[in-house]
Design a protein that fits this description.
Length: about 600
């Protein structure tokens, strides 16, 4: 079976897994999302010996799969040639328990016969040491212990344990339950216990979705994107990862195989911004805790663009040879070299979400004067770095420039601090930050604007373009009716648009010429079309992007222009943010129907 990103995630904001259309676990890491994969089949060829968990139906002929409405609880139905069928329900428990949220490092699986007498084989083969081998196991009367790397898991089940150990094919004549979680005793009857956990998990998610403010149109797409963005949050610390996978290449044989299981300040900024538009303030508040700790940790100095979900700085990149790679395409990377980069836009992406706490009365913990003064250290760093070369938001590995986008985000940091200071009645500080913002603006307008061509370039003194210039209006640097913005949009459309999709840039970089479009940039382009009054075109491209989603309603990072095939890590938070933002912009108003 050829690996694919056509996968459905489940999770509970502590642990997550990706499940294929046949109900097979092919990817999950422990004890955290950036840990060792206990299910590694996605990265281990077309017929891996281990690193998966499946329910094999004898003489299976078809399968169907969907989520329980408004939840990440997954339902798979398998059909056999003789008419027998069975249902598999997969979920990670998440619900209230003892006045706190219960979100264990655990996966729940319920199976039951639907018709006929299905004959099944349960194959649970977790991996150890980055897919190098099957995890060793021991067992008792109703459980099996698996010694995975970084965590020991215990399967508790009312299925005969010997059937699982020997992978014996047997009749499924009654419902069965599986709890694959911490190495501790399951303190109740597993069947009723897991059924109740499923029901409570369904209720939790449906209540969470019920509180979202949704656009009138494309609600299904927005709900699925929002749920999945929440699954990318590591609730213990507030971190938000860029994707759940590592090393799915940006296009075949590209070598652009990156580990995205970490918290990029930039990606998280866009994520909480989109969720905030839906009213999901819970994720924003928790992420602000992560940011405030990061601000204290940096103490006015250098901030990495990416950290571990526990605020770890040391996420050095290495290559592992223990798995074959996605469709055999190596390298498989663990860690990310971007942690060594200078990417000066991060200072703006720290300030912009944190200043909301000074205004937003919904928050349990409003911003304080001490918070403002701590944030001023970040603003000063933004001012100091606004005209210094960096790797840019596209994380170039072999050259540095003064990137326009980075400078604009530094301007935004100073601009927002000036406004927050006024709100806090700190007039002297407001004047100081407004002056700093003015200095940065003048520098950008003199160094990045091409007078003869009438548009902005992607770097100071350069002539190249990149899609991030479309963000100049989004952060308020240019107004929608500014002719310089109109011209910048026009040349981006001319040079970076291929078919309905938009490339980040087209010049060769460290790895040659890009061959796939970047989904988030296409969504930026859709927003720009709307801003330019071209709503019919915007809607057409938006519908095209929605049609390219997986069966789970999600997108990866990149898309092949000709085939429409998805590439890059999955599910990609950037891409899901684009779905939410564009749906809100392009939807009809609720006043049209009520």
């Amino acid at each position: 079976m050829k690996p694919s990103v056509d996968l459905a995630p489940i999770g509970n904001c502590a642990v997550s897994a990706l499940i294929d259309r046949q109900g097979r676990y092919v990817w999950a890491c422990a004890p955290r999302v950036d840990g060792d994969p206990l299910f590694s089949a996605l990265m281990d060829g077309s017929d891996p010996d281990h690193g998966f968990w499946d329910i094999v139906l004898e003489d299976q002929v078809s399968a169907e799969q969907d989520y329980v409405r408004n939840t990440p609880v997954l339902r798979t139905v398998l059909h056999a040639a003789d008419g027998a069928s069975l249902e598999i329900i997969d979920f990670c428990p998440r619900h209230a328990q003892l006045e706190r949220t219960y979100r264990p490092l655990a996966f729940g699986r319920l199976i039951r016969p639907l018709s006929g007498t299905p004959r099944i084989t349960v194959r649970l083969r977790p991996a150890a040491n980055w897919g190098e081998r099957r995890a060793e196991s021991t067992h008792g009367s109703n459980h099996i212990r698996y010694l995975c790397t970084g965590a020991t898991f215990r399967l508790t089940t009312d299925c005969p344990v010997s059937h699982v150990i020997s992978e014996r094919t047997f009749r499924l004549e009654k419902p069965m339950a599986f709890f694959f979680g911490p190495d501790e005793a399951y303190d109740q009857d597993v069947g009723p216990g897991m059924t109740a956990a499923r029901d409570r998990t369904v209720a939790y998610w449906q209540q969470w979705v019920r509180k979202l403010y949704l656009p009138l149109d494309w609600q299904e797409a927005v709900i699925r994107a929002a749920i999945t963005l929440k699954l990318c949050a590591y609730e213990e610390t507030g971190a938000i990862v860029a994707a759940l996978t590592t090393s799915v290449p940006e296009f075949p044989g590209s070598g652009r195989n990156w580990d995205y299981r970490y918290c990029w300040i930039r990606d998280a900024y866009y994520t909480v911004r989109a969720l905030n538009r839906l009213g999901a303030v819970d994720i924003l508040e928790n992420y602000l805790v992560y940011l405030r700790n990061l601000v204290d940790q940096a103490d006015g100095g250098h901030v990495q663009p990416v950290y571990g979900v526990g605020l770890e700085e040391d996420i050095d990149e290495r290559i592992t040879d223990t798995v074959e790679g996605y469709r055999g395409m190596k390298p498989v990377r663990v860690g990310n070299q971007a942690r060594e980069h200078l990417q000066h836009d991060v200072y703006g992406q720290i300030v912009l979400p944190l200043v909301q706490a000074f205004y937003d009365q919904r928050m349990i913990r409003p911003g304080t004067l001490e918070d403002f003064h701590a944030l001023e250290k970040v603003g000063q760093r933004a001012f100091d770095m606004h005209d210094q070369p960096d790797a840019g938001l596209w994380e170039f590995r072999t050259f540095a420039r003064v990137h326009t986008y980075s400078a604009v985000m530094c301007w935004a940091a100073c601009d927002r601090l000036a406004k927050a200071a006024l709100h806090l009645n700190l007039k002297d500080r407001a004047a100081d930050w407004a002056d700093k913002a003015r200095i940065i603006r003048e520098r950008i307008e003199s160094e990045a604007y091409l007078q003869e061509d009438g548009h902005f370039a992607a770097s100071f003194g350069g002539t190249e373009l990149d899609a991030s210039l479309l963000q100049l209006t989004d952060v308020g640097f240019l107004s929608l009716d500014d002719p310089r913005m109109a011209r910048t949009f026009a040349v981006i459309e001319r040079d970076l648009k291929k078919g309905p999709f938009l490339f980040r840039y087209v010049e060769p970089d460290d790895f040659g010429e890009p061959e796939t479009a970047f989904n988030f940039c296409t969504f930026w382009f859709i927003e720009a079309l709307h801003q330019n009054g071209r709503d019919e075109e915007a809607r057409a491209i938006f519908e095209e992007m929605l049609a390219r989603r997986t069966h789970a309603g999600l997108l990866s990072e990149d898309i092949a222009v000709e085939s429409g095939e998805l590439w890059g890590n999955y599910p990609q938070t950037y891409s899901l943010v684009g779905i939410i933002n564009c749906a809100i912009l392009l939807s009809r108003s609720w006043t049209d129907v009520r």
